[in-house]
Amino acid sequence: MQEILSKTDDPKSPLLGQEFFELSLLDTANQLGTRYCIRQARAQWSEIDRAIMWDDEQRDYFWILNEAKKRYAERRLALAQLGFIYSDMDW
Fold first, then answer.
1. How do the residues of the chain divide into helix, strand and coil, expressed in percent and rounded to 5?
2. How far is 76 from 23, CA to CA, in rounded Å?
3. Closest Cα partner for 11 from 82, 77, 91?
4. Cα–Cα distance measured from residue 22 to residue 53, given in angstroms and rounded to the nearest whole number
5. Strand order in 86-87's β-sheet?
């Protein structure tokens, strides 16, 4: 599961000054079983590079899916409290 969170859902809003977060729940199988990763990364328009630049990547790893889902929900709630309430999964 992967979603992009933003403060606006207006597709005509200029990218300059906007900030986005990618929040994802990934799974990787290995010889010990399946490990789950919650990944959060911030994106912001860079006028110098004339592109969206990604930074501030954070990862949490879990062996139990329910724990990973709980952490995903906690991170999503924290971002919503910062105003990132619009998700590309809602479109």
1. 20, 50, 30
2. 8
3. 91
4. 12
5. 51-62, 33-46, 19-30, 2-6, 86-87
* DSSP labels, 62-80: ESSHHHHHHHHHHHHHHHH
Contact present, 40 and 58 (Cβ < 8 Å): yes
14-27 pLDDT tens trace: 666 788 999 999 99
pLDDT tens digit string along 25-44? 999 998 889 999 999 999 98
The secondary structure element, H or E, covering residue 58 is strand 51-62
Q: Say what the pTM is.
A: 0.84
Q: Are 46 and 29 in contact (CB under 8 A)?
A: no
Q: Are 7 and 14 in contact (CB under 8 A)?
A: no
Cβ contacts of 68 within 8 Å, gap of 6 or more: 25, 36, 37, 38, 60, 62
- CA-nearest of 15, 13, 2 to 75 is 2
